[in-house]
Amino acid sequence: MCKTNGLSEDIIWNCKTLLRERVVVMKLMNKCEEISNRLTKQVTKITGDSGGGWNIEQPSILNKSMELKPYQKIGLNWLALLYKHSLNGILADEMGLGKTIQAIAFLAYLYQEGDVGPHLIVVPASTIDNWIREINLWCPDLQILFYYGSQDDRKHLRMDIHNNVVDFNVIVTTYNSAISSAEDRSLFRRMKLHYAIFDEGHMLKNMGSVRYQHLMTINAQYRLLLTGTPVQNNLLELMSLLNFVMPHMFSSSTSEVRRMFSSKPKAAEEHSIYEKERITHAKQIMKPFILRRVKEEVLKQLPPKKDIIELCEMSEKQEQLYQDLFNYFKRSIDSQEKSSEMGNVMMQLRKMANHPLLHRQYYTPEKLKEMSKLMLKEPTHCEANPDLIFEDMSVMTDYELHLLCKQYANISDFKLEMDLILDSGKFRMLGHMLSDFKEKGDRVVLFSQFTMMLDILEVFLKQQQFRYLRLDGKTQISDRIHLIDEFNSDMGIFVFLLSTKAGGLGINLTSANVVILHDIDCNPYNDKQAEDRCHRVGQTREVTVIRLISKGTIEESMLKISQQKLKLEQDMTAADAGEEGAIPADIATLLKASLKL
Question: What span, in angstroms and rounded, lies between the C-alpha atoms of 149 and 102?
Fold first, then answer.
């Protein structure tokens, strides 16, 4: 049998598939280009002599004592422009630029135009109070229905809505409340909503998720997504957002778009060219539907921000423990080949890179057995089973066991020495840094992802005799406001301790000018949101942001990946040669000129 030369059947079919994907994407790009040209032409009329456009000023029903900033007026005009052309969009201004306020101003504009709703605002549970507070502050004329609470609470609300016994212009609800039951989903599927606004829109980045599919059924004539992080990991996530806001335009192309923006070139040398081409395609597609401004563009008066990466040598003991842990995991993975365990491996290595007490090393099984027997002398444990006590202790970390020893007198001799509690490379670096900042009169916001790490940091700060406050995910909202006010008013408080995930909405710490990220997040946007607590409107001093990275650990790899993610966003929003600015800067620039801002 002779050997066949030439192209294989697989290659031919793959080429046909690729060509079909490219044709679909090109058609999509051409359609988006037509929309861009139409919007640009409309805005051009505003600045022309014909006066064929419009110039939307701040709606008169907004609170007279509040004033939109110039870039926020541009955002309002952009939203109105999309509305006039029956287009949906994504307001993707960087965190801290007031997307909430621009959305409220737009609803006020619609109200003045005769569109009194009903509108729907879907938000994360952590931001719902802020939304209601901001609507009441900025536009008290808008009547709000708060769709939230237990299943029984929501059942009564649904009855009120169906029976028309409540008056409202806007329903404010959470992602969970909107879709958690069949009755909730049915309500928003049947209601004829005018606008549906989705806060923290990056929660819709996965078009394959159940949440995404349920929210797609909400019956709204228009959709608006608000997100400070439109591009988090890859271009496919951005396409998921676009598909959500413009389903009639993207749905027929979903499978081709998914393959086009998720596939990767096999050869390394192809990667750069391929990636540039995909970014160009994505920019062309997103151009009419996304408005993205960053603080450096619109807040010229904002003091600069300096980013510093500090590589910290681990302590001798910590380095040995990290290497032992790394080698253990390497042997386990090599022998079992269980990739599903990698997430846990990564977390354990991260913890060791930050502090050994986040593991259990010092409390050996022998010590735990001795401690579990001594616990029987405690009045609360005199009838307990020592084997069960041992079992409970064996899943605790060294620091948790240390706290247990402080709590019970009969095991108090097993408490850890202060030298062990302070034994980490990052603590050595922090000690020098904080002393210097204190001497200069700086004030510090110190973040960690791990609440137990915050516990250990408290011991460190007390030992250094630094005054501090602490806020984490368990802190009540009413207490948060008190803590923030106390820090901003009492200049004697040197450090504000925060958990990274709790360092978001409503936290204004502009009285501090140094941000220290004790441990970085896998998602760089969580860290960016954290640093924006200081680097925001109201800041009067240069802000220094310091990331502590344990040298020779998994944190260095995390940092590299984070920088790649941020570069993808920069590539997406950066201007190409011949363009006037960031996407969609041609429209935004024209609006700015039309409003003489």
Answer: 27
pLDDT in tens, 79-107: 888 888 888 888 888 777 788 899 999 99
- Nearest Cα residue to 524 out of 565, 575, 553, 568: 565
Q: Of all helices (H) and strands (E), which one includes residue 6? A: none
Under 8 Å between Cβ of 545 and 307: yes
pTM: 0.67
Residues 6+ apart with CB under 8 A from 31: 249
Element (H, E) at 12: helix 9-47
Q: Are 122 and 197 in contact (CB under 8 A)?
A: yes
Collapsing DSSP to helix, strand or coil, 234 comes out as: coil
Kindly write down the DSSP assignment for every residue of 523-555, as one continuous string.
SHHHHHHHHTTTSSTT--S-EEEEEEEETTSHH
Question: Which residue in the block uniquely carries the two structure tokens 């719902």?
Answer: 128
Distance CA 179, CA 422 (A): 47
Q: Is 326 left (phi over 0), alpha (psi -120 to 50) or beta?
A: alpha
Q: What CATH homologous superfamily does 305-314+425-565 map to? A: P-loop containing nucleotide triphosphate hydrolases (3.40.50.300)
Q: What percent of the chain has pLDDT over 70?
A: 74
Phi/psi zone of residue 578: left (φ > 0), alpha (ψ -120 to 50 degrees), beta?
Answer: left
Task: Compute the distance between CA of residue 595 and CA of residue 53 in angstroms, rounded to an integer.
Answer: 11
For the chain, list residues with pLDDT below 50: 1-4, 12-13, 46-53, 263, 265-271, 339-341, 575-585, 587, 590-591, 594-597
Between CA 400 and CA 412 the distance in angstroms is: 13
DSSP symbol at 61: T
- Which alpha helices (H) appear in 48-98, and where do they start and end? 70-84
Choose the CATH number for 9-293+582-594 among 3.40.50.620, 3.40.190.290, 3.40.50.10810, 3.40.718.10: 3.40.50.10810
**Averaged pLDDT score across all residues of the chain:** 78
- The predicted structure's pLDDT at residue 134: 87
Distance CA 362, CA 365 (A): 10
Q: Residue ranges of the alpha helices (H) in 415-573?
A: 418-421, 425-440, 451-463, 477-489, 524-531, 554-573
AA identity, residue 161: I
